[in-house]
TrEMBL record:
Record carries keyword Glycoprotein: no
Domain HTH luxR-type: 215-280
PROSITE patterns: HTH_LUXR_2
Name of this chain's protein: LuxR C-terminal-related transcriptional regulator
Gene3D superfamilies in alphabetical order: 3.30.450.40, Winged helix-like DNA-binding domain superfamily/Winged helix DNA-binding domain (1.10.10.10)
SMART domains registered for this protein in UniProt: HTH_LUXR
CDD domains: LuxR_C_like
Record keyword Ligase present: no
Keywords in alphabetical order: DNA-binding, Transcription, Transcription regulation
Pfam families assigned to the protein according to its UniProt record, in alphabetical order: GAF_2 (PF13185), GerE (PF00196)
Protein source organism: Amycolatopsis nalaikhensis
Organism ancestry: Bacteria, Bacillati, Actinomycetota, Actinomycetes, Pseudonocardiales
């Protein structure tokens, strides 16, 4: 009978999708700040695809709460048109626009929106969200605004793709580690039932090639700041993002990361996060 290896005390394998990814709303809020700074529009907002609906969830410059949480169906309104076509779409006079349906006139006009442009955030041909720029007066929103939105949406899409790939690889890594522990347990069981001799010795040598437990404790305790930095790295943050979140300089973040990796006996940030989690130092 196979007995799974017992994890180190205090260690619980995390759900990768919960612990590894930074909150996507942080990414979208950063995008909205970029839209405001790059175009000067008074209102920028975003929606994310949930269960095949675009849900408006992030706002900068809103005066009312009428649009917050609005579920936009594919093909309807400006955002639904973008989701269907996977292309930018805009209207210069929302009230009179004939290129869209008017299912959402009450919340849109209640916010005072006169003109708006929306662009898709898409990865691998699949729309993940929509970014909007809007004005409340007869002010043209031309190609320059569209170009800014497209550039920022492309950046959001790249970041989402990276996060997806990190999650995928760590899920594979977790599955591999579990399987290796299972294989070691199976070999150990067979070795225990094998009479002393060359075959048993060979099985025991094979057992030694597979991980049985979490790694040993680091050569020195990690400092609170080293753990803070590793915690942000575990969320997928870059050094610059970690510095901003922890109010540190990027060079200081690098120094904490290097010292943490040295104490953990690893050589890259991914190994540092994985090892720290095995030791129960990170959730």
């Amino acid at each position: 009978m196979t007995v799974p290896a017992t994890p180190a005390r205090g260690y619980h394998r995390p759900e990768v999708s919960v612990l590894l990814r930074p909150a996507d709303e942080d990414l979208y809020r950063r995008a909205l700040r970029g839209i405001r700074q790059g175009t000067g529009v008074p209102l920028a907002f975003a929606g994310r695809l949930r269960e095949n609906h675009l849900v408006l969830s992030d706002f900068l410059g809103a005066r009312t709460g009428g649009l917050r949480g609005l579920r936009v169906e594919p093909g309807k309104g400006v955002g639904g048109t973008v989701v269907d076509s996977r292309r930018p779409h805009g209207v210069s006079d929302y009230r009179a626009a004939r290129t869209i349906t008017h299912d959402y006139d009450d919340p849109v006009l209640g916010e005072g929106i006169h003109a708006t442009i929306a662009v898709p955030v898409a990865t691998r041909g699949r729309v993940r969200g929509v970014l909007y720029a809007a004005v409340r007066a007869e002010q043209p929103l031309g190609d320059r605004v569209t170009d800014v939105l497209v550039r920022i949406a492309d950046g959001v899409a790249r970041e989402l793709s990276i996060r997806d790939e990190v999650d995928h690889r760590l899920e594979l890594l977790g599955a591999t580690e579990d399987r290796l522990r299972e294989l070691r347990a199976e070999l150990a069981d067979i070795a225990a039932e094998t009479p002393p001799g060359p075959l048993r010795d060979r099985l025991l040598r094979a057992c030694g090639k597979y991980p049985a437990e979490a790694p040993a404790a680091p050569i020195a305790p990690l400092s609170p700041r080293e753990l803070d930095v590793l915690g942000q790295v575990a969320l997928g943050c870059t050094n610059a993002e970690t510095a901003e979140r922890l109010a540190l300089k990027p060079e200081t973040v690098k120094a904490y990361l290097r010292s943490g990796m040295r104490k953990l006996g690893v050589h890259d940030r991914h190994q540092a996060v994985t090892t720290a989690r095995r030791l129960g130092l990170l959730p």
